[in-house]
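dumping this here so i dont lose it
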């Protein structure tokens, strides 16, 4: 019989990449986590980890075992939902996570609507970046995450997560109010090729979208300033320090002397809803997803 607790430690090693990181996430010591995996290997009679440089990597046997482990976790998630079902009425806690812009325009309104329509449902919102949201889902600390699609996300076919498209968030070119492009209904980004640019910080998931949009327009932007917060970017633009691409979901400080101009080529980022595999049918999650789908079209109008 496989000890599911030891199997969970192996899943954590695969998710976090190292035994040390997995141990920290599970509140184990590294030696205790290693002992759990060694005992699991002895129980099964196979090697699960092998040396790789100064670290370790999963063996083919471990990879095969993980495919079954992820399926077991999804079935367990569904079993819990079935046991706790209350005639389909959303009730109990619902934990949701997302980054700041999404909380402001989607998750907060979603929570307010759910409170009115389902008084037995208690929504708890947590601000989290994209990688952290996947960690929270894996750890069972959140039930629903809204994330941005990035090249670093788990693949859409990852057996641990159920990722579904929610909406496309267009990027607008933001320029000073008196800029020659400010009065245009739509602009080709190539017309801003010689401008100074304000771009997201290198660690921002939006930075690749900005660079890709400029590259498709045929130029590499001259990035003079970097910012993480979109309102900081907007203030830099307002002071004529450059132009920027800003997603339409970002609500900027009112009355700034700036203009948002739509772009040809439709540069955008994709936003996804994500649950643990098997968790999407929980009544509370079903209700939350229905609210998000209703809110999404008007959020980018």
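and the seq i came up w/
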């Amino acid at each position: 019989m496989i000890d599911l607790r030891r199997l969970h430690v192996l899943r954590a090693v695969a998710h976090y990449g190292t035994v040390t990181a997995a141990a920290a996430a599970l509140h184990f010591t590294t030696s205790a986590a290693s002992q759990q995996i060694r005992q699991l290997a002895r129980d099964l009679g196979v090697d699960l980890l092998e040396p790789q440089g100064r670290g370790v990597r999963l063996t083919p046997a471990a990879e095969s075992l993980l495919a079954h482990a992820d399926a077991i976790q999804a079935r367990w998630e569904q079993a819990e939902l079935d046991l706790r079902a209350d005639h389909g009425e959303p009730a109990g806690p619902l934990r949701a996570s997302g980054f700041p812009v999404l909380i402001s325009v989607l998750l907060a309104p979603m929570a307010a609507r759910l409170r009115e329509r389902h008084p037995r449902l208690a929504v708890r919102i947590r601000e989290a970046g994209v990688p952290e949201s996947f960690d929270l889902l894996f750890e069972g600390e959140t039930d629903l995450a809204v994330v941005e699609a990035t090249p670093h996300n788990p693949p859409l076919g990852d057996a641990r997560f159920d990722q579904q498209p929610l909406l496309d968030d267009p990027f607008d070119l933001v320029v000073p109010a008196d800029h020659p492009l400010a009065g245009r209904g739509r602009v080709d980004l190539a017309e801003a090729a010689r401008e100074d640019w304000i771009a997201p910080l290198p660690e921002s998931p939006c930075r690749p979208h900005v660079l890709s949009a400029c590259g498709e327009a045929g130029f590499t932007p001259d990035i003079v300033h970097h910012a993480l917060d979109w309102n900081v970017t907007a203030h830099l633009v307002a002071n004529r320090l450059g132009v920027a691409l800003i997603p339409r979901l970002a609500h900027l400080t009112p009355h700034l002397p700036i203009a948002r101009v739509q772009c040809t080529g439709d540069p955008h980022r994709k936003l996804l809803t994500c649950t643990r595999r098997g968790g999407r049918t929980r009544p509370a999650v079903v209700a939350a997803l229905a609210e998000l789908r209703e809110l999404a079209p008007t959020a980018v109008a």
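The chain has a mean pLDDT of 90.
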